[in-house]
Design brief:
The chain is α+β, with helices and mostly antiparallel strands. The protein has a domain of 125 residues. It is built from five helices and 18 strands. The strands form two sheets. It has a 16-stranded antiparallel sheet that branches. The radius of gyration is 23 Å and the shape is elongated.
Length: 280
């Protein structure tokens, strides 16, 4: 058997299998596909709703007005969303899913590899916080600002390593409560943070919020669990208000008085879970 025949077999067999997979998926009704995805999310503790749901060429799924909910209410809403299996990595034995979604005028893009050594990435560009229902459903807060996130990680679950950098422009937080305890309303010129993944946990090195009269820092960690909403929190929230800011929101800081570690410095332990934070 000559080299050209070997090449024909080497390319022809994967191509034939690929065509067979595509044809098989094409004949699965959209309702059945939606049911499969819904059941997969339910095993993670989430539910899904979508105005439109179907196949995306060549191998993938698309949805319109997609909403992901938990028992606390809506978490995410996408105007459009697609998840596609990348073809070329299949020929090297890799499974990579490419995701693209829109939240308002912002975009979410990512690639997720199934193999332990595969590299996954996530990028969020110009997504307005008030269009992410998580903040309202979990904290009851009115949150504004423009979110940007970029990061990558390698591996799965406890073996995962990587980092995510996030920034928010012109952030405004009003009505934020943790475990029923109100936090100060404030506007922040800059919000920046780094989330590192490794050793089976996600570590927030420091999320810094710098505003007019108030500086806030959040740091700590949580284990990588499934679902993530059940991950127990081990965080510390630090508030450092200036005297004039403290005077304007005196009532809130009186409620937080037991967390005062020194004049103008409050250290608040945040526990509970990601889906239901609480204060000690």
């Amino acid at each position: 058997m000559n080299r050209s025949r070997f090449l024909l077999i080497g390319v022809g067999i994967p191509a034939a299998l690929f065509c067979l997979i595509v044809l098989t998926i094409l004949f699965i009704p959209n309702r059945e596909l939606k049911g499969v995805v819904s059941r997969a999310l339910e095993t993670q503790g989430y539910t899904m709703r979508a105005a439109g749901f179907g196949l995306a060429f060549p191998i993938g799924l698309r949805a319109r007005e997609l909403e992901i909910d938990s028992d606390r209410g809506a978490l995410l809403k996408f105007g459009r969303a697609t998840a596609k299996l990348r073809i070329l990595p299949l020929f090297t034995g890799k499974v990579v899913i490419a995701f693209r979604g829109t939240i308002g005028k912002g975009e979410v893009n990512g690639e997720f590899a199934s193999l332990k050594k595969g590299v996954s990435s996530l990028e969020i560009a110009d997504v307005r916080l008030d269009e992410i229902p998580f903040f309202q459903s979990v904290t009851g807060a009115q949150v504004k600002g423009e979110l940007n996130v970029k990061g990558s990680f390698r591996g799965k679950q406890n073996d995962a390593t990587g980092e995510l950098r996030l920034a928010v422009k012109d952030a405004q937080l009003q009505g934020v409560k943790i475990g029923g305890m109100p936090l100060p309303d404030a506007s922040y010129k800059t919000v920046q943070g780094m989330l590192r993944i490794g050793g089976g946990k996600a570590t927030l090195d420091s999320l810094n919020l710098e505003g007019d009269g108030l500086y806030v820092r959040l740091k700590g960690d949580m284990p990588l669990t499934t679902p993530m909403g059940a991950a127990p929190l081990n965080l510390t929230l630090e508030l450092m208000p200036k005297a004039e800011f403290l005077e304007k929101q005196k009532f809130v800081f009186l409620l937080l008085l037991k967390y005062q570690s020194s004049p103008g410095h409050y250290q608040i332990p945040v526990r509970g879970t990601l889906g239901k934070p609480a204060l000690l």
